[in-house]
Amino acid sequence: MAEVNVTSALEAIESGEQKKRSQGLEDLRSVLRHNQRKLKEGLLKDSSFRSIYEVLFRTVSLERSIHLKSLTSTSKSVKSASVTRLSACAYTLRTAVEVGVQSINLKTVRLLIDHITDAYLDSTGKSCEPLALDYAKSLRSLLTYAPHAERLRTAEWTDLYMFCLARVKDCLSDNIEDASAGASSGGSRRSGKEMSLRTSRSTNGDSQGNRISGTSHSQMMTEFFGCLRYLSSAPSVPVINVAPETLRTVLQYFEAKTTAASPDVDALIVANQILERARTEMTNILIELLPRFLGVVKVLWHQKSTMIKNEALITLTVMEPFVGAAFKRVGIETLKARVDSVIEVLINDYSTREEKDQLVLKDLYLDYPQPTLGLGNQIFCLRDNNLSAEAQWSILTLISSFSSASDNTSFEASPSDDESTRLHPRKRLRQAAWIDEMLRMAKDPSKNTRICGLQLLALRLHGSLVEEAMTLQICDVFTVCYSTSNGSVASWTLLALAW
């Protein structure tokens, strides 16, 4: 048997015989995978990879044309064969991209991007299903190598970004259509074989043409959100121009999430990258979208994934400065309900943690000569280089800030409020609802809940002007807490008392 190498595999791929072409594709994948480490270390240069890509481009173009024509055929075997061959081409190109991503230059990157974006859609603007998932993975692999995304021209970056965003929106739209179709079908029953739709690697035909299953929609969105993540992380790119549409699409994705499967963390990373870089120039949009983001974070916080929770903390941290302004522009009752629900979720999670998983005194400096630096106030601050403690600190400070905004909104009056209240007396909301809740927590029988309440009071009360009656109530609670035999509770009581 003759030795298989890249040259012989490419010759077989360009053969006019379908059997030899299929074998050539398989041989090329085997050679690339077998020598993957050497190839990544520079065994093949850019020109060699470009030759491989160009051969695969021509083969994909040929098989894609055959596949599109086969969609009008009544023969299932013809459709199935065309899907199998085109899928093999897409998988081979994906393998070649993954192996050569660090060896190719910008010119070859542009050729790949142009081919993927041109071949991905058919003449009707729908995704070419046998190519879709592998091409999405290829594009993500290409952008994972940061220099490729960073060196694109502004126009190229924008076109590619909008292409990826449009594909996410297509998947969301198809999911909504599928859900509507399922609901309208009522109680009609179909067999599992009849209801299942092909994935990108399937070999079964579909009378509807290029149609993707719900599972593949999820996979596709994962890949394209990954593409958006790497594109939006590149420096000096015009994220402001794409920010509103991106944020609304991410929100639509999370709000439409109805399955128990973990949501895609890349979607939240994309939103956070956009928020961090665009927040100073699009405050009106951020304030408009704030209630929706709060609703999303409330749901995401129930996920077990630490990465998702960390990204949700970033979202809340970026949004926190806009909460006060949002209360003046958005409906107070709606926003207050969202803010309070997020506070409740954070408190319920943090107060039930073991003491070792909460903020502990050894995480703090109690002597803080430079109050304008680091995470802290004039009494204590967080020690540097402690990522775990930073997450706990962030949760506590966000609860403190959000609860303060919520409580203040409860009794703020509009310019005409005094007159309207005199003419039409009405019962006001409690002035300091969350302060009361923190005091209740500080007296709770559970040690972890007591520590949580005292930590929140230490942050919430610092620098605050408290009415005399409330001060007496706080001191009564602190007296009880300090008298306890538990050292952690007593220590946090003294720290809270220093406000």
Note the total helix count: 23
Helical amount = 55-70%
Note the gap between the termini. Answer: 83 Å
Order of helices and strands: HHHHHHHHHHHHHHHHHEEHHHHHH
Principal-axis shape equals: elongated
- Classify the beta-strand content into a percent band: under 5%
Main sheet: strands, sense, barrel: 2 strands, antiparallel
Structural class of the helix and strand makeup?
mainly alpha
Poorly predicted runs of 5 or more residues? 187-211, 413-432
Number of strands: 2
Rounded to an integer in angstroms, the radius of gyration calculated over CA atoms is 29 Å
Overall mean pLDDT: 84
**If strands are numbered along the chain, what order do they take across the biggest sheet?**
1-2
Summary of the model, kept short:
The protein is mostly helical. The chain has helices at residues 6-13, 18-34, 36-40, 46-70, 76-100, 106-120, 129-144, 146-150, 154-184, 192-195, 214-232, 239-255, 265-278, 283-300, 306-319, 323-329, 332-351, 387-411, 417-423, 433-442, 447-461, 468-482, 487-497; strands spanning 364-365, 381-382.
